[in-house]
Structure formats: C-alpha cells, structure tokens
C-alpha cells in the first residue's frame, strides 16, 4: 500500500502543539519550584522550633553574687544529694546540678570532701 487514505479526526496544527508543550514544561517547573519552596519552608520552621526548644532547655538564669550560698562538701556527698537538699521544691534536680556546675566552673560532676561549693538561689 503506497498511499493511505487515513485522515486524523484531530487537526494537525504543529504550532499549537509546540505551544502546548512549552506551557506544559513551564507549568511543571512551577509545580516543582513551589514544592521545593514548601519543603524548604517546612524545614526552616522545624529547625527554628527545635532550636528554640534546645535554647529554652539549656538556658540557665543568671545568678547574682548576693543570691549565692556557700556549702562545704561533706564525706559521702554527691552533687545529686546536695541538689536534692537545696533546690527549690518544683525545680528539676538535673537543672539545679547544671546551675551548681556553672556557678562553680566544674567540668565534671565529681566533688570531694572539704570542697567549697557555691549554691545558686533561684
């Protein structure tokens, strides 16, 4: 069969077809860009909220010199035992221990008998 008598029912306008393809590509780029921007925004919000939470947890109130009690460590005392006995009623013991460590510039949680510690007052 050399020649066909088939004729499409759709008009063959190549210019229209090329324009439609260009519009489709532009639309696809817009969708991808919008999706990436949305993901970036969500990531920024998550990092911001997490950072604010971390800063809140590790933030220690400043302690003035007037609000400090000095204590001599007795044999058998630990920072935990000292903190439990001297911390405010509703304060977490771990937070009070961090306050003791900061005000005394301690690098670890070990204390020795006879050592004088400053206790923060909150």
Automatic annotation (TrEMBL):
Residues 69-119 form the LysM domain. PROSITE patterns: LYSM (PS51782). Keywords: Membrane, Transmembrane, Transmembrane helix. The chain crosses the membrane at residues 36-60. It comes from the Bacteria. Signal peptide: none annotated. This is Peptidoglycan-binding protein LysM. It comes from Paenibacillus polymyxa (strain SC2) (Bacillus polymyxa).
């Amino acid at each position: 069969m050399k020649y066909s008598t088939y004729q499409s029912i759709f008009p063959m306008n190549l210019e229209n077809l090329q324009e439609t393809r260009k519009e489709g590509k532009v639309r696809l780029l817009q969708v991808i860009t919008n999706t990436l921007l949305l993901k970036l925004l969500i990531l920024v919000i998550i990092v911001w909220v997490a950072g604010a939470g971390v800063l809140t947890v590790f933030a220690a109130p400043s302690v003035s010199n007037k609000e400090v009690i000095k204590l001599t460590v007795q044999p058998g005392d630990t920072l935990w035992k000292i903190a439990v006995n001297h911390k405010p009623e509703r304060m977490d013991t771990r937070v009070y221990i961090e306050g003791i460590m900061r005000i005394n510039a301690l690098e670890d949680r070990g204390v020795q008998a006879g050592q004088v510690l400053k206790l923060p007052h909150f």
